[in-house]
Amino acid sequence: MGTGTALAERIADRRAGVGDPRALVGELRRSLVLVPMDGGGLWTATFGGVRWIYGFTDDEALARFARARDSGDGLLTGREWEFAELRGARLLDEIVPAMGVPAGVALNVADPDGSMLFPPVMGIVPDAVAVDAVDTGERDTGERDGGRG
How many Cα atoms occupy the beta-carbon half-sphere of 8 within 13 Å? Predict the structure, then answer.
């Protein structure tokens, strides 16, 4: 896997108050993300009513998380960590909707100055699962009235 440098740089730009948020989402969609496994599934946590999938831009960011989780003091315990390498677009377009609850992606959570949340909102996840999507109550059933209205 690549180092995730482009994605990490876009995160740094946004945290500094510069850069285009759409470009950051686009970079996530193109990037490969390391996602730790937990009990046969992806590592997630619930906070603020959202189920967050933990992802990491590179091996070093994942290692910092693993050290913090293993012992709480940043020391290695020797535990083996399984992870999946997934394209960001797959996380946002397939996995988030399949979760059945409001879900987003939390990147580099062990890096206080390098973390970034991608919440379940329009423009990040599919509109059908975005918490800010407006439900008009109308659905396209595929039927047409043939111009008789």
Answer: 20
User: CB under 8 Å to 102, separation ≥6 — which residues?
Assistant: 49, 50, 51, 120, 129, 131
* Helices and strands (DSSP H and E) totals, the chain: 5, 7
Query: Looking at residue 140, what is its pLDDT?
Result: 39
Q: Residue 146 CA to chain centroid, in angstroms?
A: 43
Identify the band that residue 134 occupies on the pLDDT scale cut at 50, 70 and 90. confident
Distance of alpha carbon 131 from the chain centroid: 15
- Identify the H or E element spanning 97: helix 96-98
Read off φ and ψ for residue 42, nearest 5 degrees.
Answer: -75, 145
User: What is the rounded distance in angstroms from the CA atom of residue 107 to the CA atom of residue 62?
Assistant: 10
Residue 105 host element (H or E): strand 103-107
**Model pTM score:** 0.83
Nearest Cα neighbor of 61 from 87, 34, 38 is 34
Give the position of tokens 């995160």.
11
Quote the DSSP letter at residue 115: -
Whether the CB-CB separation of 126 and 93 falls below 8 Å is answered with yes
Query: Collapsing DSSP states into helix, strand and coil, what is residue 92?
Result: helix
